[in-house]
Amino acid sequence: MNHHGGEPAPGVPAAGYNLEYRVAHLKDRIAGGALGELGVRLEVRGETVLLTGTVPSAHSRDEICDLVAAELAGHQVHCDITVADASSPDHAEDLA
Amino acid sequence: MIRTAAVGDIHMAPETQGTLRPAFETLSECADLLLLAGDLTRHGTPEEARVVAREIQGLGVPVVAVLGNHDRHDDRPEEVTAILEEAGAQVLEGRAVVVDCGGARVGVAGTTGFGGGFVGRCAGEFGEPLMKEFVRYSRRCADGLRMSLEQLGEQGCDARIALTHYSPVPDTLAGEPLEIYPFLGSYLLAEAIDTAGADLAVHGHAHAGTENGMTNGGVRVRNVAQPVIGRAFHVYHVHARQPVGAGTVGEPT
To answer: Which of A33, B36, B50, B110 shows its CA 20 to 30 Å from the CA of B66?
Structure first.
């Protein structure tokens, strides 16, 4: 059954409060805004949101984690984002 | 043997200035050239491009690059290209360059490439104008890569390398959600590589992917996105071969 406007049916949460949709739009903001970060994955795990991926700097990681925590206040946010390793390689691959 | 260093997806911005420079300064000891597989900046602004330029200037090895989708986001790819070229890099789009690496002539053909997906699971040139243009654009990128590799074949290079941002094969996307593969690469790039022939294909773009793959024609593919290789760059030792002419379908040279 479709509801066109008005209040949602009893027991059906409004789309604006649906965690999955909020996370999807938040991911768009992280990708398209000043952060410009497409390499971070946001996944809903029950009432918890898990952030994974690798970013170029600790500053980027902190900005993303702070933004998600603020936008999803009331939900638990786990930030497992790592910072890219900028060290030299210790070996080469031979493609013989 | 050609010591080929490569990295992509370094996504530089003013805050990351200098982070790669210490590792890059060791390149002259371990590599003959550096390939940059796109997404060098975060948004493709001239300011970010200047950060990359300072990072790669005067490294003592030739630098060959393609742009990535991030480097085009600000709609100023020509400015980004000019800034990187001023710093000494060759930025390829549908063209090739021959680099002298300790007496060996290494040909690098490059394009950003585009998406569309892989055989049996790909977009078709049908329907809405936007959809048709999506596939046509991907085909134009692949055609540019094929023609550039063929030109290198005619020039008798000791080794030929295909440099793209988007992936030519699904192998190196393993780890990414299957649903987004069509946005990560196109089999048209692999078809171009196999048709013209190459010794190595290098790409980036898929941060959660896998380093190693191979085209149907047996050309080795390496995803060098920095989050994948977990280093400032990786080095591949490519052995000089007798060049094979263009049109050797399905055979690595």
So the answer is: A33
Task: Give the separation between CA B112 and CA A40, rounded to whole angstroms.
Answer: 22
Question: CB contact, 8 Å: A86 with chain B?
Answer: yes
Query: Which of B80, B211, B231 is the best residue to mutate to test the A interface, defined by the most A CB atoms within 10 Å of its own CB?
Result: B231
Whole-model pTM above 0.80? Answer: yes
**Is residue B250 situated within a structural domain?**
no
The Cα B220–Cα B207 span in angstroms is 19
Q: Which domain holds residue B70?
A: 2-238
Minimum Cα–Cα distance from A93: chain B residue: B236
Say if the Cβ atoms of A54 and B23 lie within 8 Å.
Answer: no
Number of domains forming the structure of chain B: 1
Element holding A50 (H helix, E strand): strand A48-55
Residue-range definition of the domain harbouring residue A32: 15-83
Q: Measured between CA atoms, how close is A3 to chain B, in angstroms?
A: 30
Per-residue pLDDT at A2 exceeds 60:
no
SS3 for B150-167 is HHHHHCCCCEEEEEECCE
CATH at B154 = 3.60.21.10
Closest CA to B122 of B135, B113, B132, B137: B135
The pLDDT value recorded for residue A10 is 52
Q: How many domains does chain A have?
A: 1
Residue A7 in any domain: the answer is no
CATH number at A74 reads 3.30.70.1770
Give A90→chain B minimum CA distance, Å: 9
- In the predicted model, is pLDDT for residue A72 greater than 80? yes
- Report whether pLDDT(B247) > 60: no
